[in-house]
C-alpha cells in the first residue's frame, strides 16, 4: 500500500538539484471565469488548469499525492460492492467502513475527491428506467449525506446498458437527463456544497441527448475522455455542444487516458495552456510505474498551489434589482458588482441571488454605500 509513496520519495531524494524544466500548468495569475446556471445563481471559478490523478482505494497511500504536488483524486465508488444485494439502501458494512476511513483521511490531508459512481450489477439488464433512476438517486444521495467533504460526485453514461442495443446514444443521454433531474436536487438538498459532474465517456451524442431533454441545469461540470492524439479535438467538439446550449463557460474537465508518459503529457499540457481547453486534467492511470518517475521533480501544479486562491469583484448583469446572499455589493450600470469574492482554484464559488425591491434614488452628489446581505457559505472541509 505504501509502494507509491516509497517510490516517489526515493526519486525525490535522489534527484539532482537542477529540477526538470517544464512549463507549469496553471501558471500565471488566476483566470477568473463566471457562468450563470440560472437567474438566481452565479458560479465563479478559477479556469487555470490543474492536474489530478486517478486513485484506487486501498492500493496506494494518500501521502503519495504530496510528493507529486497533486491535490485532487478521482476515485470510483463501486455500487455493486457498497450495495451488494437487490435491496436498495442496504450497504456492506466492511466496504462502508473502508470508505469512511478513506474519505476522512482525505479530508484531514486536504485531498479533494471526485467520486465517480460505479455501475451496479443489478442494473445491467433492467429495462425499467424508473428503477435505475430511483436506485442511483438514492445511492448517490445517501453517499453525499454520509460524506459531506466530497466536493464532486460524478455520474457517467453507463447506467442504462440494457437500452444500448436498440437505442442511439442520444436516447441514453435523454435517459440520463431524467436521472439528473431527480438526482441533482436530491444530492444538493443533502449537501448544498457539492457539485455534480457529468462524464459522457463514449459519445458526444450522449451529451447532446442530455441537453435535448433539458438536463442543462442538472450538472455543474462536464468531463471529456481523451488521449493525447485527440486531446484538443475532443475538447473543441465538446465545447461546441456546450456552447450551442448556453453552457459555453461551464467548467470542462478531462480524463486523460494516456497515463504519465512524459513526452505525451508535456505535449498535452502545452496544448492546454495555449488553448485554455480543460480546467482539470485527471490522469486516468493509477499506481506507480516507471513512466511517472519524473513527476516529483517536475512539481507540475506548483504554480497553482503557490497561489491557490484570490479575491475579486464580480459583475453580474441584472434586469431587475437583485441581492447576493452573504456578500457586500454595489449597484452599477447594468447590474450589481459583488465585492471581495474569494475564489479557490480547487472548487467553484457559488453565489445565490435573490430579487430585491427597487432602490430608492440616491441624493445628488452622494456616493452609494456598499450593500450587504448576510448568509453563511457552505464549507467543504467541515467534518
Layout of helices and strands:
Layout: H1 3-14, E1 32-38, E2 41-46, E3 50-54, H2 64-67, E4 72-77, H3 79-82, H4 93-109, E5 112-117, H5 129-146, E6 152-156, H6 169-190, E7 195-199, H7 204-212, E8 221-226, H8 231-244, E9 252-256, H9 262-275, E10 280-283, H10 295-298, H11 302-306, E11 309-317, E12 322-324, E13 327-332, E14 335-344, E15 349-355, E16 371-373
Helix pairs in contact: 5-6, 6-7, 7-8
Structure description:
It is a single chain. The chain has 383 residues and is an alpha/beta fold. It has a domain at 48-307: Alpha-Beta Barrel (TIM Barrel), CATH 3.20.20. Helix content is 32%, strand content 24%. The protein has eleven helices and 16 strands. Strand 9 (252-256), helix 9 and strand 10 (280-283) form a beta-alpha-beta unit. Helix 5 packs parallel to helix 6, helix 6 crosses helix 7 and helix 7 runs parallel beside helix 8. The longest helix has 22 residues, at 169-190.
Our estimate of the beta-strand percent is 15-25%
Summarize the main sheet: 8 strands, parallel, barrel
Task: Return the CATH architecture of one domain.
Answer: Alpha-Beta Barrel
Strand order of the largest sheet: 3-4-5-6-7-8-9-10
Mean pLDDT: 85
Helix content: 25-40%
CATH topology name of one domain? TIM Barrel
The CATH class of one domain is identified as Alpha Beta
Radius of gyration: 22 Å
Question: Notable features of this structure?
Answer:
11 helices, disordered N terminus, disordered C terminus, 383 residues, alpha/beta, eight-stranded parallel barrel, four-stranded antiparallel sheet
Amino acid at each position: 500500500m505504501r509502494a507509491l509513496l516509497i517510490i516517489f520519495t526515493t526519486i525525490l531524494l535522489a534527484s539532482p538539484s537542477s529540477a526538470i524544466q517544464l512549463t507549469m500548468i496553471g501558471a500565471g495569475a488566476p483566470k477568473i471565469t463566471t457562468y450563470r446556471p440560472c437567474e438566481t445563481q452565479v458560479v465563479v471559478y478559477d479556469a487555470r488548469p490543474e492536474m489530478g490523478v486517478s486513485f484506487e482505494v486501498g492500493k496506494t497511500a494518500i501521502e503519495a499525492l504530496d510528493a507529486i504536488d497533486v491535490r485532487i483524486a478521482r476515485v470510483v465508488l463501486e455500487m455493486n460492492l457498497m450495495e451488494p444485494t437487490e435491496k436498495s439502501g442496504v450497504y456492506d458494512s466492511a466496504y462502508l467502513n473502508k470508505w469512511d476511513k478513506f474519505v476522512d483521511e482525505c479530508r484531514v490531508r486536504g485531498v479533494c475527491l471526485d467520486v465517480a459512481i460505479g455501475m451496479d450489477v443489478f442494473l445491467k439488464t433492467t429495462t425499467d428506467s424508473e428503477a435505475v433512476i430511483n436506485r442511483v438517486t438514492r445511492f448517490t444521495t445517501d453517499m453525499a449525506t454520509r460524506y459531506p467533504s466530497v466536493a464532486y460526485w460524478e455520474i457517467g453514461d453507463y447506467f442504462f446498458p440494457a437500452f444500448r442495443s436498440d437505442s442511439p446514444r442520444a436516447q441514453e443521454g435523454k435517459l440520463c437527463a431524467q436521472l439528473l433531474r431527480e438526482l441533482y436536487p436530491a444530492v444538493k438538498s443533502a449537501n448544498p456544497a457539492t457539485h455534480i459532474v457529468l462524464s459522457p465517456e463514449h459519445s458526444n451524442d450522449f451529451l447532446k441527448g442530455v441537453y435535448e431533454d433539458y438536463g442543462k441545469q442538472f450538472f455543474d461540470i462536464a468531463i471529456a475522455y481523451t488521449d493525447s492524439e485527440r486531446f484538443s479535438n475532443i475538447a473543441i467538439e465538446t465545447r461546441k455542444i456546450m456552447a450551442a446550449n448556453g453552457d459555453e463557460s461551464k467548467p470542462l474537465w478531462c480524463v486523460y487516458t494516456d497515463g504519465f508518459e512524459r513526452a505525451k503529457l508535456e505535449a498535452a499540457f502545452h496544448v492546454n495552456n495555449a488553448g485554455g481547453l480543460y480546467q482539470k486534467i485527471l490522469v486516468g492511470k493509477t499506481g506507480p510505474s516507471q513512466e511517472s518517475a519524473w513527476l516529483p521533480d517536475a512539481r507540475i501544479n506548483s504554480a497553482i498551489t503557490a497561489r491557490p486562491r484570490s479575491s475579486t469583484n464580480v459583475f453580474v448583469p441584472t434586469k431587475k434589482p437583485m441581492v447576493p446572499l452573504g456578500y457586500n455589493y454595489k449597484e452599477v450600470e447594468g447590474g450589481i458588482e459583488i465585492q471581495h469574492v474569494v475564489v479557490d482554484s480547487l472548487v467553484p464559488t457559488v453565489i445565490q441571488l435573490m430579487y430585491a425591491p427597487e432602490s430608492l434614488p440616491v441624493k445628488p452628489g452622494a456616493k452609494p454605500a456598499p450593500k450587504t446581505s448576510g448568509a453563511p457559505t457552505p464549507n467543504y472541509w467541515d467534518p
